[in-house]
Amino acid sequence: MTDADELAPPIRVALVDDQELVRAGFRMVLDAQPDIEVVGEAGDGVQALELLRGTRADVVLMDVRMPRMDGIEATRNVVAGSGPKVVILTTFDLDEYAFAAIKAGAGGFLLKDAGPAQLIEAIKSVHSGDAVVAPSTTKRLLDRFAVHLPDAEAKANGALESLTDREGEVLRLVARGMSNAEIAARLYVSEATVKTHMGRILMKLGLRDRVQAVVFAYETGLVKSGQGDNSA
């Protein structure tokens, strides 16, 4: 551990789930991490917004199906208020909700049966600004529900013209579920270069994070449902 690591404050996490046992399980895992601090819990979206008004959090683990206010509406409110980043908790049978929450502004999503290492990695990734959480799962989610997206190819013609050829290539690879390391290896560049390209893509397209870039690629027809990575 470096001096910088020792000085860095812990990542402050809020847990939002209507199942107390689920919250207890997540808290047990996170409390064991020296660089993560659970700062509060809520059982629904209304409680979550009340909690976040009085408690500073960096990342919120947000369930989608809850009483009173679900995770979709809660996420929309949190993001609108320039609040913490949101990681959606979902199961495969609730993918429709996860997709809607990502559209509402969530920075990523995590399966509820994810292991402790995946949970910790997801929190740290989203906190650091890399909104990619399980990119291959993101792709499967979008493949499944891209048929419900509006036909926005006309929108793409204008927006995508602002991107360079290389930026367009990076965006396509991101949308196909590739990580920064995989893109760097494919394009024979450094991961830092890939991150630079992503920063420019987000700025030019007016997008908040990498997950929104994936959704944009599907919405605009840059990547089609079922279109995968054809390379070996």
TrEMBL record:
Residue stretches making up the Response regulatory domain: 12-127
Keywords: DNA-binding, Phosphoprotein, Transcription, Transcription regulation
Gene3D superfamilies: 3.40.50.2300
Keyword match Ribonucleoprotein: no
Taxonomic path: Bacteria, Bacillati, Actinomycetota, Actinomycetes, Streptosporangiales
Pfam families: GerE (PF00196), Response_reg (PF00072)
Classification via PANTHER family: TRANSCRIPTIONAL REGULATORY PROTEIN NARL-RELATED (PTHR43214:SF24), TWO-COMPONENT RESPONSE REGULATOR (PTHR43214)
PROSITE patterns on file: HTH_LUXR_1, HTH_LUXR_2, RESPONSE_REGULATORY
Protein name as annotated: Response regulator transcription factor
Hydrolase in keyword set: no
Residue numbers of 4-aspartylphosphate PTMs: D63
GO biological process: phosphorelay signal transduction system; regulation of DNA-templated transcription
Residue ranges annotated for the HTH luxR-type domain, each copy included: 156-221
GO MF entries: DNA binding
